[in-house]
Write a structure and sequence with these properties.
It contains five helices and twelve strands. By secondary structure, the chain is mostly beta strands. The longest helix has 5 residues. It starts with 5 loop residues before the first strand and ends in an 18-residue tail after the last helix. The model has no long low-confidence stretch (mean pLDDT about 95). Bound molecules: ligand MTE and molybdenum atom.
């Protein structure tokens, strides 16, 4: 698998590449199904379930503090990309606008196009997670999840929902698309949580 699409990590990078992963050349696109085309003036993010329901639009997100992020990206199909440069809104800043029922312990991420993926509130509420609208200084392209995606650097990238449009707060763990199809409920790359037990 090394060669055209992958390269071996430099020694100083190797402790940042999880077991069983290779560094990708470029930034591959990994999408199941069609790529939705959503303009910023149509884009919305709804929250519902065990939370006070609210709908955010593009200007709501732009009015929140904007930050630059450098994050490593690990796809379960065994490619990783280090130091991806993004701009967007920290999940913790976004969450300060929500009134969450304390019974909420899990979240289903929903996307334009119907993709879903589940995450615990604890994994979601980490300081390093963010909503991204800019990649390497350019507006995030549709194939990488533009206009807005989630990035959860500490889990396999299938948890980083592209074209995100909903967060459903739950009192129990439900499974998203890949999780129902044999992938791990949590997906921690350093523990190689690739596949579920069923
Ligand atoms: N809506 C949606 N989000 C998604 C996916 C998808 O198919 N649909 N693929 C996931 C997977 S498996 C990976 S590895 C990353 C890929 O992001 P990229 O295409 O920007 O590299 O997006 C994740 N988020
Ligand atoms: Mo992936």
């Amino acid at each position: 698998m090394l060669g055209k699409f992958f390269r071996k990590p430099e020694p100083e990078q190797s402790d940042r590449v999880p077991p069983g992963q290779h560094l990708a050349k470029g930034f591959p696109v990994l999408t199941y199904g069609e790529t939705p085309n959503i303009s910023t003036d149509k884009w919305e993010l709804k929250v519902w379930g065990l939370v006070k329901p609210v709908t955010f639009n593009w200007s709501d997100l732009m009015a929140m503090p904007q930050n630059h992020f450098t994050a490593d990206f690990h796809c379960v199909t065994r490619w990783s990309k280090l130091d991806v440069q993004w701009t967007g809104v920290k999940v913790t800043d976004f969450m300060s606008h929500l009134e969450i029922d304390p019974k909420a312990v899990h979240i289903m991420e929903h996307c334009y196009g119907g993709y879903t993926t589940n995450i615990s509130v604890a994994d979601f509420l980490r300081e390093e997670n963010f909503f991204a609208h800019t990649l390497s200084g350019e507006p995030l392209s549709a194939d990488h999840g533009g206009p807005m995606r989630l990035v959860v650097p500490h889990l396999y990238a299938w948890k980083s929902a592209k074209w995100i449009n909903g967060l459903e707060f739950l009192d129990n763990e439900e499974l998203g698309f890949w999780e129902r199809n044999g992938y791990h409920k949590r997906g921690e790359p350093w523990a190689e949580e690739r596949y579920g037990s069923i």
